[in-house]
Amino acid sequence: MKGRILSGMRPTGRLHIGHLSVLENWVKLQEEYETFFMVADWHALTTAFDETEEIKNKIWDMLLDWLSVGIDPEKSVVFVQSHVKEHAELHLLFSMITPLSWLERCPTYKDQVQQFGERGKDISTYGFLGYPLLQAADILIYRADTVPVGEDQLPHLELCREVARRFNYLYNAKVFPEPQAKLAKLPLLPGIDGRKMSKSYNNDISITADFDEISSRVRQMITDPQRIHKNDPGNPEVCTVYLYHKIYNPDELEEIEANCRGGKIGCVACKKKLAVKMDEALGPIRERRKELEKKPQLIEDIIADGAEKARKEASKTMEKVREVMRI
Ligand code: TRP
Ligand code: SF4
Hints:
2 domains; three-stranded parallel β-sheet
């Protein structure tokens, strides 16, 4: 039998190319697993409870990006968390059996509360403390055994397994599997300034950027700072443009490295080459998105259908849960 995957992302709106490798990995997993991909809008509320006016648009934008990259609603269940209320019921029932200390010791918790606090926002709420427990409910309600996530999510997966174990033990039933994280070796693409790519640093490139936008972002990339004249020998190892060539232009990589070190290519020309390659890679995604944007009804149908399929699976689990808990 095929393994079952659940993964999710908080709706942050349009995605950037840093998300692309994660999504392309999801696209591959669709072939090997039964896959559930969820827009975690309730999770977004744990920190953005006071800025909900844009959330619908953000969900929509993220879903369109998923579909443009190749998430296929014929192969995967694609849905929005808040459309499947059963997640909230399971979260509540889990909250009865989860010691506070398990949540408080989650390494991201105190960190995040402090970081947000420094920016003047108090997220020491009940909901934010429960973030990983809601995530456990997301996963376990589908009895998923595999969860593709980044390393930062490992403590959440650990908690998920602890909750599954405790539930099975308390109610003397094997309702839940103990899901394992699936870490993929994904290339890490920095932002155009060399820092971690993030919308909030304004150093990102949108998945659906057009050629002009790509070119202008590439022009802003940090190159070898020691290089002033175009025939100065350069050091590609310290250059963000070179890192991007590694991913978007592997065939010419050796040539670029040699020419850079030999002072035979200027940074302007090197950046132009990159912009062309990136445009080639992103073009088909951009075109698919344009097509999808013309079909809002199709998107509505995909969302409704995903919710129905997800709810069907979630309800089965909840029946079992209520039965073993005798409620
Ligand atoms: N916490 C995840 C993140 O920030 C998003 C998420 C919510 C998730 N529920 C999930 C990921 C369930 C995997 C499984 O990336
Ligand atoms: Fe970077 Fe290319 Fe300039 Fe070398 S030539 S420093 S790789 S942009």
